[in-house]
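Appendix B. Raw example, untouched.
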Amino acid sequence: MTDNTPQRLQAFWNERYAGADYAYGTAPNEFLVSCLAKLPPRGRVLCLADGEGRNGVWLAQQGFDVTSVDIADAGLRKARALADHAGVTLATVQADVTGFDLGNAAWDAIVSIFLHLPAPARRALHARCAAALKPGGVFVFEAYTPEQVAYASGGPVKEPALLVTLAEVATEFPGCRVEHRFSGERRVVEGTLHHGVAHVAQLVARRD
């Protein structure tokens, strides 16, 4: 997908989410689940590029006030359906995350799970995320690394420029301290499209 204009991205993700099945499953990301104790209890959480809502709905089930943002309205419709099925409230916003107004000191946590952007857009978004966290707020991040091109478990391996190293991402949150960092293999089981041993970067950063 070399055409990364918002219109092309929206069309791509709407097509991916058009089926009845949930492309990445309905269970939350395992790394996000492991970070639950690090999140301010019952706070406001923003889920970036939350797709069909598996992470946002799970967070709402834990008592958080969750807003899920995604470029694909097809995904957000399924996110709302998933929230209804789970009996929780989930706010959804259809927007390109690179242009979405995150606010300032507005969120107790921001979650970015397998959101892959060109490096300049990623760096700009992460700097805005740092400013958008409340003092003590937490940013939770997982994405595929360049090593993922050797694996068959998912990710944008045909566009290696969208993959990210831990060393890069760890420098992108001014005013935050990194509380967790990891780069290496883990088994990812998320629907049919993320399945198998993968090479990921994980980071948790907290605003001072």
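End of appendix B.
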